[in-house]
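quick q for whoever's on today - can somebody do inverse folding on this one?? i tried earlier but teh output was garbage lol. tokens:
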């Protein structure tokens, strides 16, 4: 976390003095944020107790509430939010990921999160779409990073992406899945997400790419316990039907 914060500060102080193309600045910023998310997820405790989790979340939540209330304009506020979201998102993701009982459950996590994220980003009534249209909401739920060549700090990654990064890494550690393969797969998924944003110039949901990368990298995620197949299928079918109904209603 300290390294991520230091990189943020260096980028903000040195960035305005550099002559960097906008595309390069975006790629560097996105890469730094992704690296911070992967590092935070890798280091997050795998099995914290709930009281410990709440105690560790409290400072981060306090920072976010303070920023929401005071709304300071300084880049230092963006740095505080950056660290708070990294901490809170990785702790929450690790807490959930460590409680995934079977590797086969990752298949349903990947599908459910992908469906929800696709709806959230692409539909006007989706949470992500609403947040993207609100500068205040972006300031406290998105990880921002300094853009080299400018004095701007721009939002690049949602806290939900940090949560699921930590979730997949924690699940991999718990079940003895190859950790390096998981890290590389998630990094590649973020890289594809970045390319999609650059090519299409619209917000692109990252969770479908993260879920697909996890399933491809870890074949054991396809081994669903027989007793869970039917109820998971029903739950996903209901979820898909609800999302489809909301889309058609819009």
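ok took a stab at it. sequence:
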């Amino acid at each position: 976390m300290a390294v991520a914060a230091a990189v943020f500060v260096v980028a903000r102080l040195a960035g305005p003095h550099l002559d960097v193309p906008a595309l390069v600045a975006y790629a560097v910023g996105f890469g730094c944020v992704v690296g911070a998310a992967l590092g935070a997820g890798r280091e997050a405790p795998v099995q914290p107790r709930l009281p410990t989790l709440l105690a560790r979340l409290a400072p981060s939540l306090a920072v976010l509430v303070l920023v929401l209330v005071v709304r300071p304009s300084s880049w230092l506020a963006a740095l505080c939010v950056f660290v708070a979201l990294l901490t809170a998102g990785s702790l929450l993701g690790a807490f959930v990921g460590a409680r995934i009982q079977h590797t086969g459950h990752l298949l349903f996590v990947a599908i459910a999160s992908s469906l929800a994220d696709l709806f959230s980003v692409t539909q006007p009534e989706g949470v992500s779409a609403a947040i993207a249209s609100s500068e205040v909401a972006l300031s406290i739920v998105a990880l921002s990073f300094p853009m080299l060549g400018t004095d701007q700090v721009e939002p690049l990654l949602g806290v939900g992406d940090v949560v699921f990064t930590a979730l997949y890494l924690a699940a991999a550690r718990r079940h003895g899945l190859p950790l390096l393969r998981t890290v590389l797969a998630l990094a590649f998924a973020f890289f594809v997400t970045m390319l999609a944003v650059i090519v299409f110039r619209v917000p692109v949901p990252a969770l479908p790419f993260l879920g697909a990368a996890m399933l491809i990298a870890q074949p054991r995620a396809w081994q669903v316990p027989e007793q869970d197949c039917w109820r998971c299928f029903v739950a996903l079918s209901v979820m898909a039907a609800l999302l489809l109904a909301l889309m058609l209603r819009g």
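fwiw Residues 226-249 form the longest helix (24 residues). also The first strand starts at residue 142 and ends at 146. so keep that in mind when u check it
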